[in-house]
Amino acid sequence: MNERRWLTVAGWFLASRLAILALGAVGVATFTDQRALAGCQADPSSGSCAQLTRQGAAALDPETTWLKWDAEWYERIAIHGYAHELDTPKGQAAAGYFPLYPLAVSALWAIAPWLSFFWVASLFSNILTFIALLLLARYLVPERNDLQQVLAVLMTSAGSFYLSIPYSESLFLLLVVGVLVATRKRRYELAGLLAGLAATTRVHGLALVAVPAVASWLDHQLPSGQRRSRAAVAAALFALPVAGYFVYLSSVQGSWSAFVARQELWGNPSPYPLSAFGGFIDFPRRITNWLHGGFWFLYAGLLWRYWKRMPIGEALFCLGALLISTQQEAFHGTYRYVVPLIPLSIAVAGDRPATRNGLIAFNLVFGALMLLAFVTWNRLTV
User: Mean pLDDT, to the nearest integer, of 1-7?
Assistant: First the structure.
């Protein structure tokens, strides 16, 4: 990669991360902390009333700002694993989180135990994101002008702030990019294995196997028998990490299907695709469902618009990831789930400026709203 492209990646990465840090600090210093508010209302004599907003050094402390929501669960898993307090609903609910990210952070934390979980995980997330962007720039976006546009779409996306905090989005992004790169280099077996690792990071990774499997099946440079055999090997290598995850889950949670079974503890007793559409009927006044559902329809429409511009396996991955994101009782977090859909970001970047810039502007507004909700414990973000 030449120096100018490297600097382009570094510039977008640093500028977007600094803007996110600044907005988070403004949010915790300006708006009411909803968790503290609930504690204050329950017990006015508690210390919660003094923490409704964070001022001074507290507002500038990234750990105070960003160690929230799922990050607390990843910290719990990194410390205790999945077998902690299994006789309690909280201990069982940990199975709702996939293991690769928190266990990787736990391994790194053992090397630097003097650091807090937050700093180890955040450093890990930022490094993974930066590596993913470098691979994207080198192998997936050949032209520098195109790279500017792809980075603009990706780094201004509404859920981009999750790529730098203790969440699994950064690892998933790197694995998605790795699968795309390996597939385009016709290393289908490696791509299948990376897709399997992605499936132990986020449930949306299950759709990623379509990328190497379909590309191998349709690779006309290979004899027909070799096409089928390499697609089968890619699928088998994909299944290895997934099977290992099931075995691990069975050993620590007592059931290989604990991820599905434990969804009831998260208010989702039927975690199957398309369930979220019922939320419009079951929860007609839930504003989060309409916000996140609207975001889902926007990106489903974009996929329809760009379907023929993508390799079929990559388009199927995006479709599968969008369908998997509907497995909740109502729409949640769609703006997070579309961030790693790199084929879709590349397609948006190649559209006419009015469409691309309009989508960027929408994401900036929606993302600022979600970021402020995140740092103030407002359920609007989830």
Answer: 78
